[in-house]
């Protein structure tokens, strides 16, 4: 009879060095991905020494954080200044009825550590602002944009492009989701897709227009997948591609996104070289051009 994957290695005595150089518990915990040749012991070690920052512990950040923690990402940072509200729980599944009123960053940290105590969780109970963005983004390998507004999305894009930091972008509304992965200097950025934020009120928010909870669930899981693939160096990332998801027709479509040589953020002659050049308070317009 075929022995299970973990039984083969756990059958070896503790003194026997297992091929992954992981603890017995780690071999069991991560067995279903250790068996994948794209992960293996080497990939698992990479995950365990990686650092991912999640901006927003909401509908996108919840599944992203849980899957990254489950996969064994060594350090997860959570940036969120909000408190858990009853109306969040329809989609922000990292929080619970028990944590209503608590800071989202702390509520997310508790849930991550309940799932996987090996993860080092760093909380930032603040908003990402032009003044703190470059500092907050220091020392991370990959960023998940789980924010719910254009202002933060453009800020994450510009800050990550300045720092050369890869990130996953996603946005959701009603039954629609879209996502792309940005690796600065290797592919296009979010401003190559949308040059400037639409004027306030032009695009409804999830609060105004609604969103089905599973839609950010699907998108957040894709964002975590992209982070894991980037860390272990497997497969093709969503760089230069925008993935579009329509839950009502249950279709995934994708279109190619090219780097715009005139992009103010990542173009041949970028004008956004520091974040004070952009009016994020208004509609993310580039001041100096
Ligand atoms: Zn660009």
Quickly describe the structure.
This protein is of the alpha/beta class and 289 residues long.
Q: Please work out how many helical segments DSSP would assign.
A: 11
What's the overall geometry? Answer: globular
Number of strands: 10
List low-confidence stretches: none
- Second rung of CATH, namely the architecture: 3-Layer(aba) Sandwich
What's the structural domain tally?
A: 1
Named CATH topology: Rossmann fold
What are the distinct ligands in this entry?
Answer: zinc ion
CATH level 1 name: Alpha Beta
**What is the succession of H and E elements?**
HHHHEHEHEHEHEEHHHEEEE
- Rounded to an integer in angstroms, the radius of gyration calculated over CA atoms is 20 Å
For CATH, the homologous superfamily is named as NAD(P)-binding Rossmann-like Domain
Strand sequence of the main sheet, in spatial order? 3-2-1-4-5-6-7-8
End-to-end C-alpha gap: 69 Å
Structural class: alpha/beta
Helix content: 25-40%
Strand content: 15-25%
Average pLDDT confidence is: 92
Largest sheet: 8 strands, mixed
């Amino acid at each position: 009879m075929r022995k299970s994957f973990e039984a083969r290695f756990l059958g070896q005595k503790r003194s026997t060095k297992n091929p992954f150089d992981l603890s017995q518990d780690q071999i069991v915990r991560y067995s279903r991905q250790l068996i994948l040749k794209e992960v293996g012991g080497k990939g698992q070690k990479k995950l365990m020494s990686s650092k991912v920052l999640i901006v927003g512990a909401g509908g996108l950040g919840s599944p992203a954080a849980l899957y990254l923690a489950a996969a064994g990402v060594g350090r997860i940072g959570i940036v969120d200044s909000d408190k858990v509200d009853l109306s969040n729980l329809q989609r922000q599944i990292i929080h619970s009825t028990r944590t209503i009123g608590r800071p989202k960053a702390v509520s997310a940290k508790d849930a991550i550590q309940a799932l996987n105590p090996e993860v080092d969780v760093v909380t930032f109970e603040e908003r990402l602002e032009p003044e703190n963005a470059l500092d907050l983004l220091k020392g991370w390998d990959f960023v998940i944009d789980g924010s719910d507004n254009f202002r933060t999305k453009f800020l994450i894009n510009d800050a990550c492009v300045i720092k050369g930091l890869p990130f996953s972008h996603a946005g959701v509304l009603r039954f629609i989701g879209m996502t792309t992965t940005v690796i600065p200097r290797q592919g296009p950025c979010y401003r190559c897709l949308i040059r400037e934020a639409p004027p306030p009120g032009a695009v409804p928010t999830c609060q105004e227009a609604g969103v089905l909870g599973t839609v950010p669930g699907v998108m957040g899981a894709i964002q975590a997948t992209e982070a894991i693939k980037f860390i272990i160096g497997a497969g093709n990332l969503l760089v230069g591609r925008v993935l579009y998801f329509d839950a009502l027709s249950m279709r995934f479509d994708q279109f190619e996104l090219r780097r715009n040589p005139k992009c103010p953020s990542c173009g041949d002659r970028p004008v956004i070289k520091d974040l004070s050049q952009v009016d994020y308070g208004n509609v993310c317009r580039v001041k100096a051009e």
